[in-house]
Specification:
The structure holds 2 protein chains of 2 kinds. By secondary structure, chain A is mostly helical. Chain A is built from 16 helices and 2 strands. Helices cover 67% and strands 1% of the residues of chain A. Helices cover 30% and strands 15% of the residues of chain B. The longest helix of chain B has 30 residues. The chains are: A mainly alpha, B alpha+beta.
Chain lengths: 430, 308
């Protein structure tokens, strides 16, 4: 117990130290978070009328972001499988970064759901026994359960491993292995259930397609790992943490397969809708062509399509995949592409045209944009803090001192441009 | 120059102060309902689900609500909890050949059921359809506004909650804030709903409506005869819907729903599906009746028909 307390105090000291770049980044995030908080206060006072959502389009930007971020949280499992099922060393060393990304993404997910609901103070109605969780009838109840489970598993495993490393002990495998193995089906479950949440509604033909779950999984294995690769490059460049090219290439390969499956499934969906040409085509038409002169999403979805196809080519071609510049480009393109396609591109056409075929065009309001920005900043803040602690521990720059009580902090700066001679055993940056 | 700067500073200062104030208020709102809030706020916060309240607790809740509403609108407002009548299952009939699209039902419903006037909430939507195209919703006109109705070549189709026998909306609610009563009416506990709007995504009829802002009704327009599960004033941030005028139809002797009562052409019929002598049973047995979006198997108890 005392050890946990000392560890906790040590992390507080650690996160308060850093280079100028680190302070600037954290301050930047904190100010965006303050703006987001201000927007949320406005929304709490006035009600959700400050958003552009209305009865016709009753879910909007918040739920779109939520849906996308559930996908990003998949990053962890793609590292956990090669690391802990196949015991592949290059990825085992970095798997914890994926778990921390999952934690941050789920935190954002929960925040996006919270700001979307009309009576957030009644959240306790969702707690089993105390409230009245409609389990197993409601898929939203399932989602509450699996998202929180996934969050707890990742947080527990990551913190447990880091905590032991801090005390220079080998983490107890009897504890970590079952949890890590459990995190694999639970990562699958958060996507499956979030897809089911839309999938099960007969009222919305755009979502009522059995291909939705595989589409969710495929796109999740694009966006999450793409973000992960970007983080690997940043971490490698600005901290002393070493990440092998081999590990990055392995993740990139998986992304190439995932983009292919994602595009294939989308194509299958489009074929079915267009060739059948039933009334259920309307939302697809709205998304890709515009309907009765309404076409707000058309430029967005085509941007996404183009980005995804270019990214696919970049990932597929070994030359561009092995080139760090084109690889980063591919990651950015597929991340944005999936953000559009699995965000607004999935949620909004479910409501346009609405169940009585009315068309209400939706675009997020200023408050929605600011508040969402605040949540993204919060997620990045959480992720930054987690990395600030995790990376020095992994590097051996943050551990218990020789007296066994106080903590030794070898890395005072955290974010600094590294010289290119990173691979040689370099001393701490000055 | 310095004047301008001073002025700028002042504005900045003021807006910053306002922002801080707002922030504090917001945090207060999230954390607790204020220090000076009366006990009733806490009572409301901790109120149990309607169906889990004991008799005594229910009495207390009703007394609190009646007091709150009566003070707010400065007149006596009653909140009933009349239970379903044994052996009754409500059914609704709508004669498409008679409806003239006057929307009197829409506004009678708003008045009877205390829907918000700003922003406007309406539980009935009347669509204008082309006679040539029949019931083809992709050509429906929702906001028709001619000087007189009906217009030549058109017919009208009002849609409201279909009180499904298998409601997709209640199934999806994560907190069981909405359910089907024994008389077939689908109701919402406005004090339990968390406002996630999953039910709105699930409803194939657009029958559920959300209070995007605090509902505003002029005190003199408030209908003081209310039911807990029906037309009592709603808070912001919760979902509401048609209840077949639960505050009228569960009375003994019962009254027709406001929409059926006001219809000038007798297009709206209402009755007990379990009573073989009822008008609704006669219609189902003798007219060409259809239900809306039959393929979804929601089994509505709202029957459209053509009497002529």
């Amino acid at each position: 117990m005392k050890n946990i307390w000392h560890f906790y105090m040590g992390t507080l000291v650690l996160i308060s130290k850093g280079s100028k770049a680190y302070y600037c980044w954290v301050l930047f995030l904190l100010s965006l978070m303050a703006i987001g908080a201000y927007a949320y206060v406005q929304q709490l006072n006035e009600g959700l009328i400050v958003t552009s959502m209305r009865d016709q389009v009753s879910w909007g930007f918040y739920i779109s972001n939520f849906t996308f971020l559930v996908g990003v949280a998949a990053a962890a499992v793609l590292l956990v499988i090669p690391a802990y099922v196949y015991h592949w060393k290059p990825i085992k060393e970095i798997a914890v970064l994926g778990e921390l990304l999952a934690v941050s993404a789920i935190v954002m997910c929960l925040m996006f759901v919270t700001v979307d609901i009309g009576r957030p103070e009644r959240f306790w109605h969702l707690i089993p026994k105390i409230g009245l969780l409609n389990f197993p009838q409601s898929l939203l109840a399932w989602d509450v359960v699996v998202l929180n489970t996934y969050l707890m598993i990742n947080l527990t495993v990551a913190v447990f491993i880091l905590y032991n490393k801090y005390y220079k002990r080998e983490p107890n495998k009897k504890f970590t292995t079952p949890l890590l193995l459990l995190s694999i089906p639970s990562a699958i479950s958060i996507h499956t259930i979030t897809a089911f949440l839309y999938n099960g509604l007969g009222a919305r033909p755009f979502w009522n397609s059995s291909i939705l779950v595989p589409r969710f999984l495929a796109s999740a294995f694009c966006s999450g790992p793409a973000f992960m690769i970007l983080i690997f490059f940043l971490v490698r460049k600005y901290t002393k943490f070493k990440i092998e090219d081999e590990a990055i290439q392995k993740v990139a390969e998986i992304i190439a397969y995932a983009i292919f499956i994602n595009l294939l499934l989308l194509g299958a969906e489009l074929f079915k809708e267009y060739y059948t040409g039933s009334v259920h085509l309307a939302p697809v038409q709205y998304l890709f062509q515009g309907l009765h002169g309404h076409s707000a999403l058309v430029p967005w979805i085509w941007t996404a399509m183009i980005f995804n196809v270019i990214a696919f080519v970049l990932f597929l071609n070994p030359a561009t995949r092995r080139n760090n510049v084109t690889l980063v480009m591919g990651c950015i393109l597929v991340f944005i592409g999936v953000y559009i396609e699995k965000g607004m591109g999935l949620v909004i056409p479910g409501f346009i045209p609405d169940v009585l075929h009315e068309i209400y065009e939706y675009a997020p309001s200023g408050i929605e944009l600011l508040l969402s920005m605040g949540i993204w900043a919060t997620g990045l803040f959480v992720f930054t803090m987690l990395l600030r602690v995790a990376i020095p521990i992994m590097n051996g720059d943050f551990h218990v001192a020789d007296d066994g009580v106080t903590s030794y902090i070898g890395d005072q700066l955290f974010l600094v441009q590294q010289p290119d001679t990173i691979n040689s055993e370099s001393e701490p940056a000055k | 120059m310095s004047d301008i700067k001073k002025c700028d500073d002042h504005v900045l200062h003021k807006s910053r102060r306002k922002m801080l104030k707002g922030l504090a208020a917001g945090i207060g709102l999230i954390a607790m309902p204020g220090r000076d809030a009366s006990a009733s706020v806490w009572e409301e916060f901790f109120q149990k689900h309607f169906r889990e309240l004991s008799k005594d607790e229910l009495k207390g809740v009703i007394a609190r609500l009646e007091k709150e509403y009566s003070t707010r609108y400065d007149k006596k407002i009653t909140v009933k909890t009349t239970p379903p009548i044994e052996g009754v299952r409500y059914g609704y009939g709508l004669d498409l050949s008679r409806c003239i699209g006057c929307r009197r039902c829409v506004y009678a419903c708003v008045t009877e059921n205390n829907q918000s006037r700003t922003p406007q909430v309406q539980w009935i939507r009347v669509m204008q359809l082309d006679k040539e195209k029949g019931i083809d919703l992709s050509h429906a006109e929702h906001y028709y506004n001619p000087a007189t109705v009906p217009e030549k070549g058109h017919f009208y189709m009002p849609v409201q909650c279909q009180q499904c026998e298998k409601p997709p909306c209640t199934k999806v609610c994560p907190v069981q804030a909405t359910w089907k009563e024994n008389d077939g009416i689908v109701v919402v506990d406005y004090n339990w709903c968390i406002g996630c709007r999953y039910c709105m995504a699930a409803c194939p009829y657009g029958a559920r409506h959300f209070n995007w802002a605090k509902p505003v009704i002029a005190a003199k327009e408030v209908n003081p005869n209310t039911h807990y599960l029906g037309n009592r004033p709603r808070p912001k941030g919760v979902v509401e819907k048609c209840t077949f005028c639960i505050q009228r139809t569960r009375e003994q002797p019962g009254r027709y729903p406001a929409c059926a009562e006001v219809c000038p052409v007798g297009a709206r019929k209402f009755g007990n599906l379990l009573d073989p002598e009822s008008e609704i049973r006669y219609l189902i047995e003798n007219k060409r009746v259809f239900i809306f979006k039959e393929d979804l198997n929601t089994q509505p108890k709202f029957y459209y028909f053509y009497a002529t």
